[in-house]
Amino acid sequence: VQLQASGGGLVQAGGSLRLSCVVSGRTVGDYVMGWFRQAPGKQREFVATIYWGGYTTYTDSVKGRFTISRDNGKNTASLQMNNLKPEDTAIYYCAAALRGYTDYRTPAPYHSWGQGTQVTVSS
User: What is the C-alpha separation between 22 and 106, in angstroms, rounded?
Assistant: First the structure.
């Protein structure tokens, strides 16, 4: 499976962006889809995950501001980001994982990754 992420950009604090991840080669519904981010000098960190049945999980710092979703018809996963803060600045990556893992909040279960899209939030 191949993933293509897009939608990043420069936005002022309080603004919004919508990231998209197009899945090719397999159906998006076959996977747990995750979004991770990596800021300069930091490790890649978990942002959000959506499971097969639509259940979602978020890291605490984005709860209430970010929404992960999946469109099986368009074979995409998206991350709607509202009320962005400067600390959200990072490269954002989408990723796909199969069943069988107990914790999808780490990079380990994800076997396919998009190329990353830069999100920069100015204060």
Answer: 21
| Residues ≥6 apart with Cβ < 8 Å to 17 | 7, 8, 9, 11, 81, 84, 119
* Distances, alpha carbon 78 to alpha carbons 2, 4, 33, 67, 122, in Å: 15, 11, 9, 8, 22
Three-state SS at 67: strand
**CA–CA gap between residue 32 and residue 117 (Å, rounded):** 20
Cα 46 from Cα 60, distance rounded (Å): 10
* Own/partner long-range contacts of 107-111 (Cβ < 8 Å, ≥24 apart): 107/36, 107/44, 107/46, 109/32, 110/34, 110/36
Structure tokens at 29: 């519904």
Residue-by-residue pLDDT tens, the chain, 123 positions: 899 999 999 999 999 999 999 999 889 988 999 999 999 999 999 999 999 889 999 999 999 999 999 999 999 999 999 999 999 999 999 999 998 898 999 999 999 999 999 999 999
